[in-house]
Write a structure and sequence with these properties.
- The structure holds two protein chains of two kinds.
- Chain A is of the alpha/beta class.
- A five-stranded mixed β-sheet of chain A has the order 1-2-5-4-3.
- Chain A is elongated.
- Chain B has a single domain, classed as Cytochrome-c3 Hydrogenase, chain B (Orthogonal Bundle).
- The longest helix of chain B is centred in the first third of the chain and has 29 residues.
- The relative contact order of chain B is 0.19.
- The chains are: A alpha/beta, B alpha+beta.
């Protein structure tokens, strides 16, 4: 029974796969020859999906390299860098030197990476001297490969008309733990709530979604998740959606 | 006891004098969210908003789908304003993939998003009216909203969930003879909403209920990072359409509305004034729009960008709506963070409700132009 079922499914798979191959014109002569072999041996059906699998593998290898590429891209067209954004970023780097690393400068967008020990100083400087006055969003991003969880504060300004187009992304990262125990492990960041009052709910969301505990935050409670949520923080990459 | 509880959970203390009320989440007076209100007699002493009743994990879902299949589900947080919630996503993906949108598509996008802003605002206005006990103000916007829904149905084929914007343009061109129909409907719509002043905004009962309730000062509005109508009702002139114009907004003739008082009345009036501006924008866009041309650039199947991250924002019906999209050279985005106006305005709820009478709660709460489903994502 089971063998007949598998052959049926194989032929079904083959039928569905055939029009796919006909769509891509280049593969057509290659695919038509192994097609009769599929009918005799059911194992060849697994060979067909294995073909696209090697394709993502080199992409993953590229990932660490492209980080350097991004930097070189920033350096190469230095003439084209928008002046105003560059002057803002220069102010920060002049003040903090190597503590503040400028990740990119684009039209209306700057990103500055800092260590978590320095983020309060840098944020205070950005508020007091550069006139950014509120946070638009706080994105928590999980990087399991680099063993870190990033918090990106997108800051904007209502009071300074010169800055109304600008969004300054201030990013810092916390160590990531394989078995998260939110609030009790090393995944901690200093809260920016004293500097930018508007991050209060954003940081609460970041805490429950990625397990980043914000020290000195007055109200580190759950916000969106249910009270009885007993799984790991859901926006971590190792949390899989059920059924996918 | 409290030390043993895991972080994120808390014990409630019961005071004899202060009573704790749960408003919501099923109660229609709060939308799909819970307000934990502590009252001393008739006065609110503390308010703790508890969103999350309709949290659907849109950001997590977006990490599993490619840039195109993300479109229909990303509009779900606010289906009445679906064009405006897809707008920053499309702008961000266009920047990641390096797409240039055709000129005609930019104008059609503006028209569709302004129509959608009006549709959302009318829905909100209907709810605001009914919760202030003004039944006519529920009926009229709910009826007049159909005018614009019919227009959007002609463009997109769906009444509310349009999924009309795609990276690189729009899904399909306008139907034949759309300009005339649109102009006629929008002119009539404008005439209709001007009549709302007589029945609603100049109504002494409404004014007495909403004026001087829930006052948000200019400094607090900035400090709390509010956005949209809440911010502009407190005297801060900030509209993304003017400050960081996207697509063709810089070519169009319109103004932003700012009121100084910062109370519930001002907050409820700004969206209505915005709708009048939207009518101007739509008429202007219809006039300046190229009459023919491509509306969409062709995309490769499963398009992917490089290692970039993009933050784009637009002005939605509820204020700035930003999308932070991170691409890691894969067809699926690595991370999509949706920063919505509702969520950002949520923070001022405890501040505005403290010291108010419980009866004023709906007037303050709904004046925040808050959409719980969008805040939860």
């Amino acid at each position: 029974m089971s063998s007949s079922d598998t052959t049926e499914t194989n032929t079904k798979k083959k039928r569905t796969r055939k029009p796919r191959t006909t769509k891509s014109k280049t593969k057509k002569p290659e695919e038509t020859t192994p097609a009769p072999a599929e009918i005799t041996t059911p194992e060849t059906s697994t060979l067909v999906p294995s073909e696209p699998e090697p394709a993502p593998a080199p992409v993953e290898e590229i990932v660490p390299e492209t980080e350097e590429k991004v930097e070189t891209e920033d350096v190469a067209p230095q003439v084209e860098l928008p002046k105003f954004e560059k002057s803002l970023a220069d102010k920060v780097t002049q003040k903090f030197g190597s503590k503040a690393e400028v990740a990119y400068i684009k039209q209306n967008r700057i990103r500055i990476n800092v260590k978590k020990e320095d983020i309060k100083d840098v944020a205070s400087y950005i508020r007091d001297e550069l006139n950014f006055d509120h946070a638009e969003s706080v994105s928590g991003v999980d990087y399991p490969d680099e063993n870190k969880i990033e918090a990106v504060y997108h800051l904007g300004s209502y009071t300074d008309p010169e800055l109304s187009k600008q969004i300054l992304a201030l990013a810092t990262s916390a160590p990531r733990e394989e078995n998260p125990n939110p609030g009790r492990d090393s995944t901690r960041l200093p809260s920016l709530r004293d500097v930018f009052y508007s991050v209060e709910f954003h940081e609460r969301e970041c805490f429950e979604m990625l397990g980043v505990y914000f020290d000195d935050h007055p109200d580190n409670r759950r916000l969106l998740l249910p009270e009885d949520w007993a799984d790991i923080p859901p926006l971590r990459k190792d949390f899989d959606i059920k059924g996918r | 006891m409290t030390a043993q509880l895991p972080p994120g959970l808390q014990l409630e203390k019961v005071d004899e004098r202060i009573m704790t009320l749960n408003v919501g989440p099923q109660h229609p007076g709060s939308g799909h969210m819970r307000l934990i209100v502590q009252v001393d007699g008739d006065y609110i002493v503390a308010c703790d908003p508890d969103p999350g009743y309709v949290h659907r994990g849109e950001e997590k879902m977006a990490e599993y789908r490619n840039y195109i299949t993300n479109i229909p589900h990303l509009e779900r947080p606010v289906i009445h304003d679906s064009c405006n919630i897809l707008y920053p996503y499309c702008l961000a993906v266009e920047e990641i993939l390096g797409l240039e949108v055709p000129e005609r598509a930019k104008y059609v996008r503006v028209i569709a998003s302004e129509l959608n802003r009006c549709v959302y605002t009318m829905y909100w206005l209907a709810i605001y009216g009914i919760f202030l006990g003004h039944s006519t103000m529920f009926m009229w916007p709910a009826g007049d909203r159909e005018l614009l829904i019919d227009l959007l149905e002609k463009i997109t084929g769906a009444r509310v969930t349009h999924a009309y914007f795609v990276p690189g343009g729009i899904r399909n061109d306008l139907p034949a003879n759309f300009e005339d129909v649109c102009l006629r409907q929008v002119n009539y719509f404008e005439k209709r909403i001007k009549e709302y002043a007589d029945i609603f905004y100049d109504n002494p009962i409404l004014i007495s209920r909403t004026e001087n309730t829930g006052i948000l000062s200019r400094q607090d509005a900035i400090r709390l990072g509010t956005t949209g109508s809440v911010l502009r009702a407190s005297g801060v002139d900030f509209d993304i359409r003017k400050k960081e114009p996207y697509d063709v907004y810089e070519n169009l003739d319109f103004q932003t509305n700012v009121l100084q008082s910062g109370d519930s009345y001002a907050r409820s009036k700004i969206p209505w004034l915005d709708m009048l501006e939207s009518c101007r924008i739509i008429r202007d866009a219809l006039k300046k729009m190229p009459k023919s041309g491509a509306v969409r650039v062709k995309l490769k199947p499963n398009p992917k960008g490089g290692d970039v991250e993009v933050y784009r924002r637009v002005e939605s019906g509820r204020g700035a709506l930003g999308m932070h999209v991170i691409s890691k050279s894969k067809p699926e985005p690595y991370r999509v963070k949706i920063s919505v106006g509702s969520f950002r305005n949520l923070i001022c709820m405890p501040y505005l409700l403290r010291g108010e009478k419980l009866g004023n709660m709906p007037a303050v709460y709904w004046s925040l132009n808050y959409w719980p489903v969008e805040a939860d994502r």
